[in-house]
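Two entries, shown back to back:
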Amino acid sequence: MALPVRELPNGWTVASVNRSETDYLYKEIFVDETYRSGLRDLTADRPVVFDVGANIGLFSLYAAQEWPEARIFAFEPAPEVFEALEENMRIVENASLFRLALGERGEEREFSYYPGYTMMSGFEADPEADRVLVESFIENQVNSSVADAQRRPALVDSMAKTLDGRFRQEKFPVRVERLADIATAHGVDRIDLLKLDVEGSELDVLLGISASLWKGIGQVVAEVADRDGELAAVTDLFTRHGMLTRVEQSSEYAGTGLSMVFAWRP
C-alpha cells in the first residue's frame, strides 16, 4: 500500500506515516532548528553524519540541504517508517539507510511500535508515561500561546482527547547492531555529527561506540529522556571522552524529563 504524501511549507513533498507527526518534525527541524541550535559548523569537506532514530528522514534531508557533500547514514527499525525514509531519501546522494536499531551489543530485541505516534516508538516505550509526557507538552503549548486563562483547561482537555488510541502498541523483533561495527563495516573512522533520537535508548547507543571511534566523533546532538538518571550518565560519558556539553530544555517540555544534549570537542 502506498504511503500518504505530505507537502511541506518549503515546497517539498515527502512520504509520511502520520500527517500531524510530519508537521511537528518539520517545525522542530526546519523552522525551530532544534537540533542545529547548539551545533558548531561542520568544517570537513565531506562531513559524515549519523542520523540514529531517523523516522521518515526529515533530519537527514535537513543535513543534506545544509551540507550537500555530506555522507549520511540513517537508521530506523520500524518497517512502515523505514519505507517512508527510503522514499524520501531517494533524492539524496551518498546516503546509506539501515532498517535496524543501534545499541550496546549485537542482538535481537522486542520493539514497541505506536502506529499512531511513530516517533515515540522504541524499546523503552511506555504508553502511560508517553501519554503523560505528550499531555504535558500540550499543556505547556496552550499556556504559552492562549492569553485567556479561563479557556486553557477546556482547550487542553480537547487536545488531549485527540491522543485516544494513538498509543496502541504493536510489538515485533528488530535487529540491534553496535555503532562501532557499522562504522567499521563501512570504512568510517570519524563521525562529524552524530544525531540521536531513540526514545530512552540513548545511553545504549553510545555504549556501542568503541574507544578508537570516540576519538573521531566531533559533535553529538541527542534528545535524552531522563527517567532514571540517564541525563547525568550521558553527559558524564561525553565528558569522559573529552567532550564539552550543554543541556537545553525547551519551554514546551518544562516539567518533563526530556532535554537536548549537545556535545563537542574543544
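entry 2 starts here
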Amino acid sequence: MHAATDQLPNTELTPRRILPGRSPRPTPRIVTTASLTSHVHTLAGPPGSSGPVFVLLHGIGMSHRYYRRLQALLARHGDTHAIDLPGFGGTPTPDRQLSVADYAHHTAATLEKMGASRVVLIGHSMGTQFATELAVQRPDLVSHVVLLGPVVDPERRTVRQQTLTLGLDGLKESPMGNAIMFADYVRSGLRWYLTELPVMMTYALETRLALVHQPVLIIRGSRDPVAPRNWCEKLAATAPNGRFLEIPGKPHIVQHGGAAGTAASILGLASN
C-alpha cells in the first residue's frame, strides 16, 4: 500500500500561553508492574467527555516534560497519560537492560492497571519503538498509533551518526527545548542511557511496523536531522494503514515547538 502524505490541517488549536510555568499541571501516579515502576502524569479531559484517551511515550533519556504543551492541547478533548518509563524521568532504574519488548509489555500492564484501553498511542524518537511494539503485542489496547520523529534510520544506524545528528538537532531546538532535554538526560544518568542505547540502535522499526494494522500517522518536523523525510515516508509506506505528515520549520522535538500542528494532526487521525 502506498502511504498518503498529508498537509498540515487547518486548526483552531493555538499555543495560547502553553508554557511550562503556566500550562496545566498533570496529576502524578506511581504504577508498578512486576519489578518495574513508571510514573504516569495525567491530565483529565473535559468533564463528561467521551473523547479518545491519549497515551504519550517519551524517547531515550527523556520524560513527560517535553510533552507538556502537546498534552495540554490534547486534554481539551480527552484524558491524557504521559508515562515516565522505568529508568527515566526520576523512576527507579531497573537492575537489568530492558528490551523494546520489555518496555511494551510493561506499558501494557500499566495501562491495564489504569483501566485504559483502545488508546491513541503516541511515541517520540525511541518512544516510537515502544509504541510500535505495543501495538503489535497488544492490538486490543491500541486504536491508533502516532510516531513522532521515528528512529533509527537504517542508513544511520551507528552511534557516531546518531550522536552527530542529535548534536545538529540541538542547534535547531529552542533554548527551552534544549533545557528540558539536558535536564532530563542528567536525571536519567549516563549509565542507563548507555545501557539502553544499543537496544534503540538494533530495533528494526521498519520490520515491526509492517505488522501494525491500526491507523498509523508518521510526523516529523521539516528541520529534523534525526528522522529524515525519506525514512519517514518509507515507514508510512511500510505500515498497512500509514500516513505521513511534515510540520514546517520544526526540529526533532516537534511536539514541543510545533505543539498546535501536532495536536491537530493527532486529533484528525483519532476522529477517523
